[in-house]
């Protein structure tokens, strides 16, 4: 998979983020929300979603091209209020093609 490099924080991250527009679902506690992954790497992603401030951990399913899904447990590392979104660090890969994201970095 070939993605352009759109990483605004290249020195603070272990992996290069790639700009994408991928549908995602986020489960935070009892809430199940639709989100959009706007960038992704083997270490994390930016998800456009509006979550309560008290949310620290979540489970996300990111729908990769070709119908493949990436299912991860993630920790919220930072938030943006406008437009709403969160930067997450992947804590555990629960299911999915981690190697596909890894090859793209």
Proportion of residues in extended strands:
over 45%
The Cα radius of gyration reads 13 Å
Largest sheet: 6 strands, antiparallel, barrel
CATH class: Mainly Beta
Number of domains: 1
Class of secondary structure makeup: mainly beta
Secondary-structure arrangement, i.e. CATH architecture: Beta Barrel
> CATH topology, which one?
Thrombin, subunit H
Oligomeric assembly: single chain
Uncertain segments are: 1-7
Helix segment tally: 1
- How widely separated are the two ends? 10 Å
Order of helices and strands: EEEEEEH
The CATH fourth-level homologous superfamily:
predicted glycosyltransferase like domains
| Portion in helices | under 10%
Q: What is the arithmetic mean of pLDDT? A: 85
Query: How many distinct beta strands?
Result: 6
Give a verbal description of the structure.
- It is a single chain.
- With 105 residues, the chain is mainly beta.
- 7% of the residues lie in helices and 54% in strands.
- The protein is globular, with a radius of gyration of 13 Å.
- It has one domain (21-97): Thrombin, subunit H.
- The chain contains one helix and six strands.
- Strand 1 (18-28) and strand 2 (31-41) form a beta hairpin.
Describe the SSE topology:
Elements: E1 18-28, E2 31-41, E3 44-48, E4 57-63, E5 69-80, E6 85-95, H1 98-104
Antiparallel strand pairs: 1-2, 1-4, 2-3, 3-6, 4-5, 5-6
């Amino acid at each position: 998979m070939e993605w352009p490099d759109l990483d605004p924080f290249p020195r603070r991250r272990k992996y290069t983020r790639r700009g994408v527009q991928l549908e995602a679902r986020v489960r935070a506690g009892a809430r199940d929300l639709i989100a959009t992954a706007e960038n992704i790497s083997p270490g994390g992603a930016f998800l456009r979603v509006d979550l309560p401030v008290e949310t620290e951990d979540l489970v996300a399913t990111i729908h990769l091209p070709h119908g493949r899904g990436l299912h991860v447990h993630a920790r919220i590392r930072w938030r943006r209020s406008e437009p709403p979104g969160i930067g997450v660090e992947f804590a555990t890969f629960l299911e999915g093609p981690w190697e596909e994201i890894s090859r793209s970095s």
